[in-house]
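Subject: Sanity check before I submit

Could someone independently write out the structure tokens for this chain? I want to compare against mine line by line before I put it in a report. The sequence has 419 residues.
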Amino acid sequence: MKSIINFFFLLIFSTNSNFFLGKNYNFKIDCISLVTEFFKNNIKFQKYTFLIFLKHLFFSIFSFVYYPVAIAIYFTNVRFIIVDTFTVGEFIVQTNIFIKKNKKIKKKLVLLSPNAICSNKTVNDMFCNEVFIIKNNLVCLILSPLTYIYLISLRVIELKKGLLPLHAFSKGYIDIYDEYLFCEHKYSKVSYDLNKKFFSLNNFSNKLGIKLKRKICVLNIRSDKNSDLRNANINKFDKSINFLISKGYFVINISNKKLRARKNLINLIDYENYKELQIYSIFNSSIYLGQSSGLTSLASLLNKRIIVTDVILYKESWINKNYISIFKKIYFKNKILDLKKIFEYDISFSLWRSNSINKNLTLKDNTSSEIFNMTKSILFKKNKNNNLKFLKKYKLNKIVYDNLVLKKCDNKFFNENLR
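---
Independent answer below. Compare away.
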């Protein structure tokens, strides 16, 4: 019941999107395209998809009423940015892209971020010095048709070359995204105000009622029911957590599952303002330990040291200079797959897109020992990039290679499981 209610909130309050997921290919959302693709039988007639189609069609048609207002807005240099605010990772990534892009185009950016569907309202506070953010549900609903007018709205991904087949779009997604994404050579240079004073250690300590020190490790273990391939067992992190505490770190568990109580550790889910405090935690951390998730994007944006376990997707866009990674082991008919096979069939990306496992494939989570060894490596800075020469022999696409999480895979794990 809750998921149905959430869907209808999303249906009502979401703005225009970057593209529409058609049956055979994706396409730009406008009145003409929606009608044309309907008659081309490119619309899925599943109940949720069709309702989204009808919503976009209605707002596209209704937006013509707004054109006189849109023309006036155009000459004020205001532009509405189309951002997916209902998933925290995309919210952070896409808004950052627009702000970086705006250093060149110099527009007055406006974001509709209705409270009813915002994944984490505290993310608004990160970007409020760079973007004018409207949060009131009714105001957002009234202004939403303006996001269907391309004259005054900006998108992360523009389908400039017409209609792209689904498979081609999937393969090209990183290429299109990469123009503004956080690549290793440019990612850490955030040249705008992230409102860091708002998220200061002193403010965070006051909210927790605890006097915090600078050495903070954030633990974020996934346990998502809708996307369980990246999930991990929180109990396998006990050894690493105890080690970090012994080295003077205060551990803040921001996961939705609790760890057993111990000195210098808190479970953030015990606090009423849990989601707000997640953002404060990452701002004030020095180490981020967990799986690839939306909040990993924030840790990377802030250039934190990142320890990523149970990785599925071998090419990621969140990488920065300070991460180390280990991967879920992929078995085919009980035999572990090496990199040659994984790259040849793009198995990791196929798993990611389908969010399901082929009956012949098995995924094995990282062990407590593997996680512990990697934690020690990043803490003592012992992990050298011995993997690069080995990886270059695969002659990967440059953008794929630039975003390849394997480049900083834990050496011990890499040598034992992937060569």
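---
OP: Matches mine. For the report I'm noting this point. Residues 88-105 form the longest helix (18 residues).
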